[in-house]
Write a structure and sequence with these properties.
Elements: H1 2-8, H2 12-28, H3 30-33, H4 39-52, E1 65-76, H5 83-86, E2 94-101, E3 107-115, H6 120-126, H7 128-131, H8 133-136, E4 141-143, E5 154-155, H9 167-193, E6 199-200, H10 205-224, H11 231-235
Parallel strand pairs: 1-4, 1-6, 4-5
Antiparallel strand pairs: 1-2, 2-3
Helix pairs in contact: 2-10
């Protein structure tokens, strides 16, 4: 914030006012732009996700997948209240963005603001997505990584259990990974396009949440309007830590 004020020769209060004005528009259309797929869109997603699972020896991927779910840390400045809650296991202060995306890397659900130290399962259980599963899932489900629980509407990969591991589990995990990479790429696009999401240097947690949500809205607008974005920008960006819980998800038992 200080750097922006110095660069443009204005006061910090002026910068705050400008940020509020810029945030107003994307936040005002967030419910329209970050929306759950209707039946037609869900059917398209199922076909697209299944095609992503094709690989050697596998004709098609997992059926009926309507989205990928994951979460990433958004680095913030050290908060003045409840500082320990925001200090995550990767040793920096953050808030968590949990998001679902479709096969085109468009966010269909976004839940932002939990302190970085919160467990993944708690973030999921406290989200609107968890509360509204009966309304959202009909004949479809999400793919998540091994940090997520197995639910009727959420399918993680197999964890390592050496004594009972079977070869087909490795193949399942490989196909699962091919179909689940979409959300990781979406986070990469988000952080590569909007460098502000790499670190938000505001003192207000609510404002940090608004900045992340606004970036998600603008990301969706860009995806839907086929805005060109170079892959090299993703490679050069700090994508952050996708999982807040380290989990062993290799395809072979150790």
């Amino acid at each position: 914030m200080n750097a922006i004020a110095d660069k443009f020769g204005v006061s910090e209060s002026t910068v705050h006012v400008a940020i509020r004005r810029v945030l107003y528009f994307p936040l005002s259309i967030s419910e329209r732009e970050i929306r759950w797929p209707n039946d037609e869109d869900a059917a398209l997603n199922k076909r697209a996700f299944r095609a992503l699972g094709r690989c050697d020896g596998v004709e098609a991927g997992l059926p009926d997948v309507i989205g990928d779910i994951d979460r990433c840390h958004v680095r913030i400045t050290r908060p003045t209240e409840c500082e320990g809650d925001y200090y995550n296991r990767q040793t920096f202060h953050s808030i968590i963005l949990q998001a679902v995306c479709d096969a085109d890397m468009v966010f269909t659900d976004a839940f932002v603001g939990f302190p970085g130290r919160a467990h993944d399962a708690r973030v999921l259980e406290e989200s609107f997505l968890f509360e509204e599963t009966a309304l959202r899932f009909g004949g479809g489900y999400l793919l998540g990584d091994a940090a997520y629980p197995l639910l009727l509407w959420l399918l993680p990969p197999y964890r390592h259990v050496t004594s009972s591991w079977q070869p087909w589990m490795s193949k399942f995990n490989h196909v699962h990974s091919r179909q689940r990479f979409v959300v990781e790429t979406a986070f990469g696009l988000l952080k590569g396009r909007f460098r502000r999401v790499d670190k938000i240097d505001v003192n207000s947690i609510p404002q940090a949440v608004e900045i992340v949500m606004a970036a998600c809205v603008l990301h969706n607008l860009a995806r839907r309007h086929a805005d060109i974005f170079e892959d090299s920008d993703i490679a050069n960006s700090d994508l952050g830590i996708f999982s807040s819980e380290p989990v062993d998800v290799d395809h072979k038992p150790t």
